[in-house]
Amino acid sequence: MKKNKFAERIYDRLEKLHKRPDRILYDSTVREALQTLEPAGNTRKRQREYVIKKLSLCGMVVMGGLSLSLLLWIRDGTQTEIVDNRIQRKEYGSGEKSVSLVAEGASDKYEIELSVEERLYKEEELSGLLESFLPILESTVIGHNDSFDRVEYDLNLVDGLNGYPFEVEWKTDGEYMDSKGALVNNILAQPQLTEITAVISCESFEAEHTFDCMVYSKAVQPSESELIAERLEKTQSEKRDEGFVTLPSELNDEAISWSYKKSYTGLLFLLATPLLALTVYFGTDRDLRKQVEDRNEQLRLDYPEIVSSLALLIGAGMTAPNAWKRVAKDYRAQRQETGIKRYAYEEMLVAIYEMESGVVQTRAYERFGRRCKVQSYNRLATMLSQNVRKGATDIAALLREEAGYAFEERKHTARRLGEKAGTKLLMPMMMLLGMIMVIIMVPAFKTYF
User: pTM (2 decimals)?
Assistant: First the structure.
């Protein structure tokens, strides 16, 4: 309620401006659409309520965007501080966390991405967790190297292969290659021969296989930023039983300061907020136009039944006005029972109210046709007006002929709606086809290669 009051105050302020924004307050297309959807009542009042509702929605979007931007900005600001060069680890079992760091020295500034592993328990703690601890390292693949005779890229050691029940544990010398298959030395004076051993196990089965690897200097030498990242990785892996990671305070005899890399998510939300508010504002008008289109479609679908009912009642001896009232009042009784609203019958009721208030029949029928804004209803209004003016006796035959024509039009409309629905389903069908192709082709490619 308070939000609507705030929107009403904004609306009143806009109305009092010297140059009022008529495009916002008194949009003619919006007024016409509202009058079409509900011809009876105060259209200006409904338009005012409609604009206030839109302003209220936009206000909520703006306030939500600003609040979220402020919270993200505050959070990002507090997370950039690192106290005593320490980063808090997660407790065991919580997984690692990724942090973006900024190493700033006297002359240079480096951005480092660091994955801080979870804290390991001390030896006495590990004794209690030994049964649930899984000391499995990763099995080997050749990676980017051509062969084991020339290893100049890191090996990719995994703990198993898909489709096989084995678990693999790796043993390396640690001098030239660490337990993860990463080359320890960036540059070697000469190639070094080393062995890596795969311990393959499955339940009680166990086997060993040894690969002879000729290790060369790394084909791609790390950059300064990568060297810093390697040093950080080594530092944070050495003492995992501590609750903090202590970052180095100097690098290459140069003092260095650390901070978290700033995130500008809050600023992005701040910039996106006005765009979102505009989208909501004009999207509401689009929804209103869609309601008008649905209303016109409903009018076309109801037209054959209305004409057929009028032809039947007039053919049975009723006058055109009485037949009109009978159809409209039957609908009104049905609406009170079901609560379902049909726009064509609502317009018929408006025409009855006009006749009862003193408007001549011909004028009421003509206004009915104009309000419906559908060509078929203009024809019906014209036929009924001519019947009143000229006293035509063949009105029942004309209505029967019009009903036959209307039912044919309804068939075409139903066929068109079916084709439209089929077109809408085309994209989901194409997506399903793509998913089926992936499901079929991926296993085939894996089997082949």
Answer: 0.49
